[in-house]
Amino acid sequence: MRSTWIFYRKEMLEMSRSFKLLWIPIVFAILGIMMPITSLFMPEILEMSGGVPPEMLSLYETPSSAMVMVQVLSQYSTMGVLILVLSCMNSVSGERYGGTAELIMVKPISSFAIIIAKWLAQCTQVFIAFGFGYIASFYYTYQMIGPLSWKSGLASFGLYGLWLILGITIALLFSTVLRGAGAAFVTLAILALLSLLNSLLPTWFSWSPARLTALASEVLVGNLLSVTSVVICCLITIGIIVFSLLSAARLLQKRVLPN
Amino acid sequence: MMGLLQVTDLKKNFGKESAVRGLTFQLEQGKCVALLGPNGAGKTTTLRMLAGLLEPSSGEIIFGEHHSVTDYRKWLGYLPQNPTFYGWMSGQEYIRFAAGLSGMEQKEISKRTEAVLAKVGLQDAAKRRISGYSGGMKQRLGFAQALVHEPKLLILDEPVSALDPIGRREVINLLREIREETTVLFSTHVLHDAEEICDDILVMAKGRLAEQGSLSSLREKHRQPLVIVQVEREREALLWLDSLKSKPYVLQADIKADIAELTVHDLGSARDELMREATENRIPLVRFEAGSSSLEDMFVKVVSKQ
Hints:
Radius of gyration of chain B: 24 Å
Pfam family, one (chain A): ABC2_membrane_2
Keywords (chain A): Membrane, Transmembrane, Transmembrane helix
Shape of chain A: elongated
Distance between the termini of chain B: 32 Å
Shape of chain B: elongated
Mean pLDDT of chain A: 89
Largest sheet of chain A: none
GO cellular component, one term (chain A): plasma membrane
Order of helices and strands of chain B: EEEHEHEHHHEHEHEEHEHEEHEH
Structural class of chain B: alpha/beta
Oligomer: heterodimer
GO molecular function (chain A): ABC-type transporter activity
Protein name (chain A): ABC transporter permease
C-alpha cells in the first residue's frame, strides 16, 4: 500500500516534470473550446472564406448547446484518445526497455503495486485533462450558445470518462508486452474496432464499452437512458479494466526483463 | 560462520540454450565473494536469478530462513551492470525513492540518504539532475541505492568493468569499505579485481562452477613450480634456451623467442641446475624468476579445460 503511494508520487512527479500535466489539459481545453466558437461563428467563417452563396448562409442554424457538447465529445474520441494513449504508451515499456525497471523490480514492491500506481497516475492525468477540457468547453458553450443541464453534463462526463479510462488501461496492458509505439497502435486499433462494431451492429453490441460514448451523447441531448443498458455497459467496462490490470501485473512479473 | 545464502543445483534455460547448468554453492555471512568467469559464462544470469529478476528453471535458493525471493528482497542490494536511473530526478530524490520502496521509515530515509550519499561522495551533486551525471557518478549512485536500506547481501554485476582507471580505483576503495559492513557477491571477468578485494572466489565457465574456494587455498592448490628465464637476443643464448626443453627436470616448456616458461619437477634442484648451466655457458641472463604459477594461469587453465 505504502509502496504504491510512493510509486504513484514518482509517476506524478515525472508527469509534472515532463510538463505532461500541463500541456495535455491545455490541448483538451483548446479542442473543447473550439467547438462552441466555430459553431457560433460558422456563418462568418464561411463568409470570410468566400464562394458560399448567401442563401446557404441564411439557412445555417446554430446547433443547440447539447449538440455542441456532443461534438466536443466526438472531438475527444479522436484527438483526445490519441493524445492520452500516446502519452501513456511508454509507461511500462519505457521502464522495461530503458533499464530503470531492473532497479525497481529487485525492491520489495509487487508488480501489482507498480501497475496500480501507474494506472492511478494515468487516471489522474485523464481526470485533470478531460475534467479541465470538459469544464472549459461546458462553460464556453453555456455562455456563448445557451443553457445546459448540469446534471446531464455530469452524467455524460462520468460515462465518457470511463471510456477514456478503458483506453488508457488497455494501453497500459499492452505497454507491458510491447514497445511503446506497438502498444499505442494495438490500443488504438482495439478502440477503433470496438467503436466500429458498435456503430455497424448496435443491437448485437449493446453491451460493448464503446456504447459508453453513445450513452454519454444521449444523456447530453436529454434522452432517457435505459438503466439496465447503462449498468451493463459500466459493469462490463469495469470488468475489462480489472482484468487488464491483473493481466498487466502478471505479465510484468512473468516476462523476462530485456537485458 | 553461518551460511547466508545457499544455492542448490540452480539451472536456467533460455529455450534450448542453457545458460546455467547446475550451480551449487554457499555464501557465508560477512564474506566478500567474487564470481569470476569469462564473458558468456552465465554470471549475469546467475546474479539476476539471485536478485529475483529471473525465475530459475530449476534449483533452489535459500536466503537465511527464507525460501523465496519475494521474502528476502528486502535484505538485498542489487546493482546491475549498466544501472539506469530516471534522468529527471535528482540523485537525492532517487535515493529517497529507492529507500521508500525498500520499506524504510520516513525519519530513517532522510538520515540514511544523507549518510549514503556522503559515503559514495555524491553529497555535492545530490541536488543535481541525474541526467547530468558522469558514468562514474552514476555507478556511485548505483552503489548508494543498493546500500541505502542496509542490505544483508549486496549483489554487484561487473561493478568496475565499464569504468576508467580513476573510477575503477574509487569503486575498489568503496568496495573495501562496504565489505566491512555486509556480505558482498560481485561478478567480474578480471581476476585482478577479485584478487584485490575478495576472500573467496567462484569460477564459472560455460554455466558450471569450475572452481571455488578461498584465494589462498586456490593459490595453494594450483601452485606449480615454474621457472621463467629471459636472455639477451644473442644466437648462443637463444640456442641454449631452446635446448632447455629436452632437460630431464623440465616437465613442460613454453619458449617464445627470448623467454622460456618452464614447468619443472622440483623447484629447488631445477633452479640450482639452471643457474649453474647459465654461468658455465656464460649466458647473458636478463631475467630469472623461480616461483609458483599465478592465479591468472589457474583461471585460464580452468576456464579452457571446460
